Every structure is written in C-alpha cells, then in structure tokens.
Amino acid sequence: MSEWREIEINEIVASANTGLDAIKRAPIVENNTGIRCMRIQDVSQNKAYANWGFTKVEEKNYEKFQLKRNDIIIARTGATVGVNSFIYSDLRSVFNNGLIRIRTNSNACVSKFLYYHFQTGNFRSFIESISGGTSSQPNIQINVLLSYDISLPPLPEQKAIAEVLSSLDDKIDLLNRQNKTLEQMAQTLFRQWFVEEAREDWEEVKIRDFVKTNTNSANKNYSHQIIKYLDTGSLTEGKVEALQEFDFHEAPSRAKRLVQHNDVLLSTVRPNQKHYGIVKNPVENLVVSTGFCVITCEDIDPHFIYILLTTSDMTEYLHSIAEGSTSAYPSLKPKDIEAIEFQLPPDELLQEFAEYCKNAWDKINKNQAQIRTLESLRDTLLPKLMSGEIRVKL
C-alpha cells in the first residue's frame, strides 16, 4: 500500500461544474426538437439516453455543457442527492442545474475508478454529512464535494480495479438486456397473435371472468415474524430492485398483500410509471404493498394477462382511468382492472403462447438469479478494492 496516497479529489479533477441554470427543469419542447437534457430523474432512474427530454440551448451553452465520454454526473440536490452516472460516449446533450459534472485529469486518475469510488458506502456517508442529511431539500456544494478524501493507487492499478468492476457490471447489463429482449419477443408474439391476427368471431370477455384480485392478506396471526417486503417503487417493468426486511409488527402499514407463484402485480397508483411485474417462486415470507393490485389467474395463462395489462396502449388507457379518479393522486381500483374487456383466443393458441412464455420466463428467472449473484459479488468486492484490502494482480 506504500504506493497508494491519500488525496482530496480536487487534486485529480480537471473540471467540476453544475449544469445549465436556464434549463433547471429541462422543459420538453414541442415536436421533440432541440438538444436532449439529462436531469436528476434520468440519473436516479437510470433512464436511457433515448428517454431524456428535449430542451432548447444556445450554441455557446451547448459547447459548454455538452456531456462527453468519461464524464461523471452526480445529483447535487433533492431526495436522491449523491446518486451518480457515468457517460460512456460523447452525447448530443447537455445537463441541468440539478447535476454536477466531474472530469478527471487523465494523467492522475482513471475516470471509471473515481466513478466506482462514488459507489462506496464511505462516499454515501460523506454525501449525507455534507448535504443536510434528512433536510427537506438537501444539496451539495461543489467546493465541499471536491474536498472528499480518497485512497488513490497508481494509474495501472486504478485501471485494473475499474476493469474488474466493469466486467461484472457489463455481465449484469448483458443479462438485463437478454431479459428485456425475451419480454419484448413475448410482447411481439402477443401483438401478432392476439391483436393483429385476432378474429372477429372470438368471444368478447372481461378479465374478471378469469382472475381473482387481492385474495390473500396478512393479518395479526400471520405465521412469519420477519418478512421480505416489496413496495411499488421497487418493481418497475418486471424488474425487482430490492426487497426490504422488517419485523412484521414494525413493517409499513401497506405491507399486507400476500402473493403466490405467477400472480401479476400492477400498481394502482400512477400506472404510467410502470410499476408492474409477475411473481415467480416467491419466498415464503414475501409481503407486498397494498399499492399493488394482486391478480391471481385461475382459468387463463398469467403471462397472457400480464402482457395484456402492460402494453403501451393499455398503460395509457389505465392511466386515463386513474386520472379521472376522485382520490388525491391518479389511482385505479381493482374493479377498473377486472372490467377490462378482451377477445378470448382459442384454447390451443393460448396454450402455445403459454408454453413459449413459460420457457422465456424460466430463462429470465435464471438470468435474474445470476444477476443477484454478480451484484452481490460486485458489492462485496467494491469497498475492499477501493480500500486496498484486496489487491489486483497486475
């Protein structure tokens, strides 16, 4: 470790600045014209570049605030203060005033190494200490951020550490993309067989004819003392971000719904945020939020209902119903979902679709198990590599 040195990051940063103040909220302009703009939610929700909003920017500001390869972006304010992102290539985009951009001096620091340093628990604790902790609007001052101390190894070791962690992230990304492709293929097949090639003589039915909703809830006699809890914000487009662990009697009041294999979960609040998924082989003590409608399919394949309820057209339709609700925020009732009509395909076509989906989701589940293993390995290695407790052989 003698060749490692303790430094403040201002010694290895070529430049650090906040984004363009004139576009603090990055208004989306009409007809998707202008320049894409990265916002805090694009970082915190890990949104793809294609999903960022557009804004109008003067040429001089575009050049000054353009995002370029190896830039590190950090949220400087709000509930997700400190979350960060790495820019892998030059982008036709700018970033707004809610973000800080850091560019390292390539002769002193490998940018990806510093990015991974910003993923450590030490950095998160530092951010909490300088951002006002639990205040209503925490924020980071650049000069304070640049005073953060890190242990910096020589450049070759920085590169090697970054490559180890990047290889794990690349594999995780590949598996996530495979899962996305498998779901998209199922959606394409659904659209072709049950929408484009639907026959007029197929019977018009309602979802409630084939499913039950919210059938099981945990009461005071629930058998598990410790529960795994899934809230609506932790499930997006079929992907579970995290399960929280609670003593059942100290869990959030919404921790009430019980689920079983192949139940479909659909958030009843703001359907356009796409908090939905299909349950596969849940742990015995899994409890989900009452913010979900839990749909148990009795006489139809659950994958059919899942895809039916999560197409872009259906999401838009459900959100329009939710916006017409009398509650304080856009929300659905189970009966709104149960009342949805669809044309019932022949049994043999449904069975063929069910067989395809079973194979697809079996592969998705295997990938998800591998993703969890890789994430656990990465999260274990990260602090040890960054502290020098584990060294990379050069």
Q: How is this structure best described in words?
A:
With 394 residues, this protein is of the alpha+beta class. It has 2 domains: 5-152, Adenine-n6-DNA-methyltransferase TaqI, Chain A, domain 2 (Alpha-Beta Complex); 203-344, DNA methylase specificity domains (Adenine-n6-DNA-methyltransferase TaqI, Chain A, domain 2). The chain contains 10 helices and 21 strands. The strands form 7 sheets. It has a 4-stranded antiparallel sheet. Strands 11-20-17-18 form a 4-stranded antiparallel sheet, covered by helices on one side. A hairpin with an 8-residue loop joins strand 17 and strand 18. The radius of gyration is 24 Å and the shape is globular. The two termini are 14 Å apart. The model has no long low-confidence stretch (mean pLDDT 91).
SSE layout and pairings?
Blueprint (H helix, E strand, L loop, with lengths): L4 E4 L4 E6 L16 E4 L1 H5 L8 E3 L3 H7 L6 E4 L8 E3 L6 E3 L3 E6 L6 H7 L3 H10 L11 H4 L3 E4 L2 H42 L6 E4 L4 E3 L12 E5 L4 E2 L2 E2 L3 E4 L7 E4 L5 E4 L8 E3 L7 E4 L2 E6 L4 H9 L1 H12 L10 H5 L2 E4 L2 H41 L7
Parallel strand pairs: 3-7, 12-19
Antiparallel strand pairs: 1-9, 2-8, 3-4, 5-6, 5-8, 10-21, 11-20, 12-15, 13-14, 16-19, 17-18, 17-20
Helix pairs in contact: 6-10
